[in-house]
Design brief:
The complex is a heterodimer. Chain A is mostly helical. Chain A contains twelve helices and no strands. In chain A, helix 4 packs antiparallel against helix 9 and helix 9 runs antiparallel to helix 12. By secondary structure, chain B is α+β, with helices and mostly antiparallel strands. Classes of the chains: A mainly alpha, B alpha+beta.
């Protein structure tokens, strides 16, 4: 097991290297630069700025400088948010995104698995149809619609909840962003669970368990659930990585100071170092969660073993 | 994970929290929507208005703007100008202090100016202080920083020697780049002086907290010379750049002001919020530049015709819902001593007559229906409003000349990189906002040697000569006349088609008192108060 984890972590190094290299050069091929603003800089100023940030060096040199600095844990200063290094910006923003993401993940997984299971047990009944129609709507309504609609109802019309901001981080500030972030994922989990649960309920060992006269609750929870969770688990990895590294849309709509919007803002502003920082962060999270999912696989399914 | 656990407890209290309103605030707090995260709080690196709003509450320049947008004494109590207009001597207020209680000194101002011009600082706006003697040379690294024309005569007197008479120099001293920094503080913390806990400032407020993309809090500075008249205890700047979200937060009474929002919202907001919607013409111009280096835009008749055929009333009223005003010349109204600039003679015609005249000119030039085909590409930076303007203009040119018009958009960074680096184009959107209220700030855009901002490479030696003359002219009235003559040339040659005068859009809650509209868009929080 430990060997498996170590092997996977080692193989992550070349993956990240490739991601860094591709992103670095793709970013540079985009026209414009971090200092081409709506209000253009005077030529002398531009020259001074380029020199200060080392952007006057040949591209390959900048690449190797970046690589060696990054390897030492120095991701450089942000070209746009000049008072901060990339590590500072991400370090300050990540806890917000993670907290928001964890809540959204919790809502999505618990809610999704629960509703999916209920729908599967009532397959083709009215509960099933109602739930699946709601789930389909949940998947198809994008969060940039969901967020404002929730705000309109709960913040402006009813004045129950704040329309935005992290505030003091208390629950009332989190409700709307967590729902906007979590509901579409909840819908995905519900559909996945329903599908695999229906399949699991039709397998031989469940039929056998039922024939033995085991109570339905035991059959569903201890036997069917185990097999049904595998596809759900597969989706959990990338989903968790996506939720925990923040959503640009939800963070912008609710003015959450998270890391998600740095990726988008950074790209638009050509903030090279900030984009690289967020790309690496996302890559690390994706690799990490896929690893966790693989380990969980082994626990759930005896056929998958990591020796 | 202890954070998460407390959240669980919070969840248990859901009911009471949902209903529980925030406790009555004893403090006077202004929740200021600022529509964007400041890129920096270092006056040497700031470049946009939303940064200036924060910085000018924290720091006070020699001069500042009053609530109605006039230049008034700030950290300086008075100033004098030498006979020839090239030496300005500012007398600092005896009681001007930094937030740590130390006195504001002439040495601080010398240090700050040198820091901005030092090429090692790479200040984005260094060029705005080029009127100071040797500033450009220092900034290019040609002479050492101590050669800069700023000196401390004594602890409370600072003297600026200029390259040439610069009548708008007192306005320059109110610019964010000319704000002072505390020498001891900057030397102690280096670039980290901008962080909460480190920063020492001399304005009406001091930095208390800053969470990027969440909030920036400034608190009343008790050491400020005019602290007795500062009515707010705190100003919280909210940096969200999402218009729609900001409006929702205004409607939920979480924000007292919203700066910048889509003009398509104006009508609805006006109906609902009446005079809380503030639309104020600004010192800025929205224009289309023609690439005068190539056919057919090198032909003045083609440029005139294209410009005349644009129905500016339509753009301003239909697309911008009156949030912009139609204009026919480059220099916006409201510059001290300049009044309303000259406009082309066709500006007084009706749009139908203009179109007839335009068609005539275009025929004369040999383009359009019956002549050489007219294929025009309009470049603009990606933005819904700019797209709607470009689409409308394309339609106008199609209808008037039978031109084939295509649109080409790219994001802000790419658009301006292309233009400033001399990329060829047909017609390109651009805009300019005043750094200081003097026509020179606009007219210098069209000088042939201005390689970066003269996108269309307009090259008229006569125009260049007139501006040069205006620089050497010490009599303010004559200087204005020279600049008017220069602007008449732009009106005649139409290297650009000036389309609209931007307006600044603000939502200002009734709760805020002391807010005055002004063209320079300066709104120091120290003039404001909140109604209980």
């Amino acid at each position: 097991m430990i060997q498996f984890v170590l092997r996977r972590l080692l193989s992550a190094v070349p993956t990240i290297f490739v991601v860094v290299t591709i992103s670095f050069f793709m970013m540079r091929f985009a026209p414009g630069g971090p200092f081409n603003l709506e209000r253009p800089l005077a030529p002398q100023t531009m020259a001074n700025v380029m020199k200060t940030y080392g952007l006057d060096q040949p591209l390959w040199k900048q690449y190797f400088t970046y690589l060696s600095n990054a390897a030492m844990g120095d991701f450089g200063p942000s070209f746009v948010y000049k008072d901060n290094t990339v590590a500072e910006l991400i370090g300050k923003a990540l806890p917000y995104s993670i907290e928001l993401g964890l809540w959204a993940l919790l809502v999505a997984v618990v809610g999704g698995v629960l509703l999916g299971t209920i729908a599967a047990l009532r397959q083709n009944g009215w509960i099933d149809y109602t739930l699946m129609v709601i789930a389909t709507i949940g998947v198809t309504v994008p969060n940039f619609v969901m967020g404002p609609v929730l705000t309109l109802i709960f913040a402006i019309m009813l004045s129950w909840l704040p329309a935005g901001s992290w505030g003091d981080g208390s629950f009332r500030f989190l409700v709307l962003p967590v729902l906007s972030l979590g509901l579409p994922q909840l819908a995905v989990f519900a559909r996945l669970t329903r599908g695999s649960m229906i399949e699991a309920l039709h397998t031989d060992h469940i039929r056998t368990a039922r024939a033995y006269g085991l109570p339905p609750r035991v059959v569903v929870i201890t036997h069917a659930m185990r097999g049904a969770m595998l596809p759900v688990l597969t989706y959990l990895g990338p989903c968790a990585a996506a939720l925990l590294t923040g959503s640009a849309v939800v963070e912008t709509i609710f003015a959450i100071p998270g890391v998600g919007r740095y990726f988008v803002l950074g790209s638009l502003n050509r903030d090279y170092t900030l984009v690289m920082g967020t790309v690496i962060l996302i890559a690390v999270f994706v690799i990490l969660f896929n690893l966790i999912v693989d380990i969980l696989y082994g626990l759930l399914d005896p056929r998958v073993r990591h020796d | 994970m202890s954070l998460m656990r407390t959240k669980w407890h919070a969840a248990l209290l859901l009911g009471s929290l949902l209903i529980g309103a925030s406790p009555a605030l004893a403090e006077a707090v202004f929740h200021r929507g600022n529509s964007g995260e400041p890129q920096t709080l270092d006056s040497a690196h700031v470049s946009v208005d939303i940064e200036a709003f924060v910085l000018k509450d924290l720091f006070e320049g020699l001069t500042i703007y009053s609530a109605d947008g006039k230049i008034v004494p700030g950290a300086a109590e008075s100033w004098t100008v030498s006979e020839d207009g090239t030496v300005y001597t500012f007398k600092l207020r005896e009681n001007a202090k930094w937030s740590d209680g130390s006195p504001v000194t002439a040495e601080d101002f010398v240090f700050s100016a040198q820091r901005v011009e030092d090429p090692k600082t790479a200040a984005e706006y260094a060029n705005i202080l080029y009127p100071i003697k040797n500033a450009e040379k220092v900034n290019k690294g040609e002479v050492p920083v101590d050669q800069l024309g700023v000196k401390a005569v004594d602890a409370k007197t600072v003297e600026y020697t200029l390259e040439r008479p610069t009548p708008y120099f007192p306005q320059l001293m109110a610019h964010m780049t000319a704000l002072p920094v505390n020498k001891a503080n900057v030397e102690k913390f280096g670039k980290d002086y901008v962080k909460p806990g480190n920063m020492v400032s001399n304005g009406a407020f001091k930095l208390e907290a800053h969470i990027p993309n969440d909030s920036l809090t400034v608190a009343k500075n008790e050491n400020y010379w005019d602290a007795a008249n500062v009515k707010l205890d705190k100003v919280i700047f909210y940096p969200s750049e999402d218009d729609a979200a900001n409006i929702r937060r205004f409607e939920a009474k979480e924000l007292d002001t919203v700066y910048h929002f889509s003009s398509s919202e104006i009508k609805r907001l006006r109906e609902q919020y009446k005079d809380q919607v503030r639309v104020t013409p600004a010192l800025s111009t929205y224009y289309y530049s023609f690439d005068t280096r190539q056919e057919p835009y090198s032909d003045v008749r083609v440029r005139q015709a294209l410009s005349m055929a644009i129905d500016r009333e339509f753009l301003a009223n239909e697309i911008y819902n009156g949030a912009q005003l139609p204009v026919y010349n480059l220099v916006p109204e409201g510059m001290e001593g300049y009044g309303k600039g000259p406009v082309p003679e066709w500006a007084s015609m009706s749009q139908i007559d203009r179109e007839d005249k335009a068609l005539e000119l275009m025929k004369e030039a040999g383009y359009g229906e019956g002549g050489k085909p007219l294929n025009i590409e309009i470049r603009y930076n990606t933005n819904t409003d700019h797209e709607r303007v470009a689409t409308a203009v394309a339609d106008m040119w199609k209808n008037t000349f039978g031109a084939k018009v295509s649109l080409q958009n790219s994001d802000v960074s790419a658009h301006y990189a292309y233009l400033t680096e001399g990329g060829k184009f047909n017609v390109a959107r651009a805009g300019w906002s005043a750094d200081y209220g003097d026509p020179e700030n606009f007219l210098s855009l069209m000088i042939s040697t201005n390689k970066s901002f003269n996108y269309g490479h307009y090259n008229n030696p006569e125009y260049d000569a007139l501006l040069k003359q205006s620089y050497d002219e010490t009599d303010p009235a004559k200087r204005m006349e020279l600049m008017k003559k220069a602007e008449e040339m732009i009106n005649r040659d139409q290297p650009i088609a000036s389309l609209m005068n931007y307006a600044n859009l603000w939502l200002v809650s009734d709760r805020i008192k002391g807010w005055e509209d002004n063209a320079v868009n300066e709104h120091l929080s120290k003039y404001l108060s909140v109604a209980e």
